[in-house]
Fold this sequence. Notes:
The chain is α/β, with parallel strands linked by helices. The protein has one domain (2-135): Metalloproteases ("zincins"), catalytic domain (Collagenase (Catalytic Domain)). Helix content is 50%, strand content 21%. It has 5 helices and 4 strands. The chain has helices at residues 15-28, 43-54, 81-90, 95-110, 118-135; strands at 2-6, 32-41, 62-66, 72-80. The protein has a 4-stranded mixed sheet with strand order 1-2-4-3, with helices on both faces. Strand 3 (62-66) and strand 4 form a beta hairpin. Helix 3 crosses helix 4 (95-110). The chain is globular and about 35 Å long. The two termini are 19 Å apart.
Amino acid sequence: MIEFSFQTEFDLDNEVVYVDWLSRLADHYDATIDSLGYVFCDDDYVHSINLKHLDHDTYTDIITFDYGTDSVLEGEIYISIDRVKENAADLDQDFQVELRRVMSHGLLHMMGFGDQTDEEKQIMRGLEDQSLEMFHVKQ
């Protein structure tokens, strides 16, 4: 089950399309989504989580809490809409595309993909690009 909640002035249009896409993405990597919650919030909300749970005094676009395994996904993904908007503008990217990139990024982390080293970051970016391509593919 995939659920979306909103702690800021933001609505995700066509939630069913996102549920389908994220489910197909997990299936592509032989994973099953058991319980996944996306929480869309603002910078301050994500910053407070970053401080409280990770002891990081920084702003970030996404924080992923993974409670499952690489093949059975359970967790929560917090996304700062403020950060996504700013990053999209900085990268001259459409907001919706950047949002999907960040959403897939969190899911990829839950499936065991990292981004700590330069090599991992390069691999992650490629996987995000593939994920974005899958968004428009109907099954």
